[in-house]
């Protein structure tokens, strides 16, 4: 009797269908059927009734299902204990994210993590970069993606992954009425801001200061995607990432003002090295490889 046969037995019992069970254990329906037949032959009992509606447990199958589930659970506990003995990374990592997953190469990082450290589980939390940094300082997160201009943050180590270009995005109607607006023209219009501490808000403040005025907060959005949508709807001018702005401009949603560009950084932030768990180190390694 093999553990994979017990996994297949449990999968068929829970799914009641060979095809769905095969997808769950990553094999084909004929292979699932053969594994069940081999297990029935070894045990000397029929585990399932095969009907046009699917696979139903026999009375013997129902009585043996609990034993199969307990055996698999015990095997899982033994693997975890062995992983702890050899110092393998495992456990839950609270991972904060900002922006969109594609820009962060999040899928690539998660795939690398799953391949090399399957015992590490992520709890993803999304928010503003300033919120992520505060959560790291308070010990409420184990690591995070952030967008920030700062290389040094008290109680947090920050690793820069990639530069990010920022531009001013104009609503289509305003851009059509003002083909070559000046900074003074822009500062007379409504703007879509972001909360204090957000890197986009920092650059809006700096832009207004360069024009000799102080930015007066009005409409606000908490994510870049919402800023882009509000600009496209004509609610005001905003600062967005260049890649998002270029995509939106191609779709006719907004226009990029050509006379200003700023830069910030996508970074991986975590507590000091002495406070990193093996699981967080594994997450960091996966992120670094995704951005290599």
Number of strands: 10
Report Rg. Answer: 27 Å
CATH architecture grouping of the largest domain: 3-Layer(aba) Sandwich
What is the CATH third-level topology name of the largest domain? D-Maltodextrin-Binding Protein, domain 2
Order of helices and strands: HHHEEHEHEHEEEHHHHEHEEH
- CATH class term of the largest domain: Alpha Beta
Low-confidence residue ranges? none
Tally of discrete structural domains = 2
Major sheet details: 8 strands, mixed
Distance N to C terminus: 44 Å
Characterization of this structure:
This protein folds into two domains: 3-85, Arc Repressor Mutant, subunit A; 92-292, D-Maltodextrin-Binding Protein, domain 2 (3-Layer(aba) Sandwich). It has helices spanning 3-15, 18-24, 29-43, 59-85, 106-116, 129-137, 172-177, 183-187, 199-210, 224-232, 242-250, 278-290; strands spanning 48-51, 54-57, 91-97, 120-126, 143-148, 152-153, 156-170, 238-241, 255-256, 262-270. Strands 3, 4, 5, 6, 7, 8, 9 and 10 form an eight-stranded mixed β-sheet that branches. It has a two-stranded antiparallel ribbon with strand order 1-2. By secondary structure, the protein is of the alpha+beta class. α1 packs across α4 (59-85) and α2 (18-24) crosses α3.
């Amino acid at each position: 009797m093999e553990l994979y046969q017990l996994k297949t037995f449990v999968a068929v019992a829970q799914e009641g269908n060979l095809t769905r069970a095969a997808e769950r254990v990553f094999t084909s329906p004929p292979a699932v059927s053969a594994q069940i037949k081999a297990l029935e032959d070894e045990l000397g009992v029929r585990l399932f009734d095969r009907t046009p509606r699917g696979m139903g447990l026999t009375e013997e199958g129902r009585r043996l299902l609990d034993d199969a589930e307990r055996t698999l659970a015990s095997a899982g506990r033994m693997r975890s204990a062995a992983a702890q003995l050899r110092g393998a990374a495992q456990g839950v990592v609270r991972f904060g994210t900002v922006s969109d997953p594609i820009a962060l190469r999040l899928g690539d990082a998660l795939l690398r993590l799953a391949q090399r450290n399957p015992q590490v589980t992520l709890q993803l939390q999304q928010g503003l970069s300033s919120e992520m940094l505060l959560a790291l300082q308070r010990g409420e997160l184990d690591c995070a993606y952030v967008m920030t201009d700062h290389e040094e943050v008290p109680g947090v180590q920050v690793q820069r992954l990639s530069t990010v270009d920022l531009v001013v995005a104009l609503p289509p109607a305003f851009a059509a009425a003002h083909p070559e607006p000046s900074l003074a023209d822009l500062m007379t219009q409504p703007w879509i801001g972001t909360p204090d501490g957000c890197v986009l808000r920092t650059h809006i403040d700096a832009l207004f200061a360069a024009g000799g005025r102080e930015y007066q907060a009005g409409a606000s959005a908490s994510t870049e995607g919402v800023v882009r949508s509000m600009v496209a709807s004509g609610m005001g001018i905003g600062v967005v990432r260049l890649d998002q702005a270029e995509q939106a401009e191609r779709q006719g949603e907004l226009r990029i003002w050509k006379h200003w560009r700023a830069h910030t950084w996508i970074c991986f932030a975590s507590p000091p090295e002495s406070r990193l768990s093996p699981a967080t180190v594994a997450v960091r390694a996966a992120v670094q490889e995704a951005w290599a």
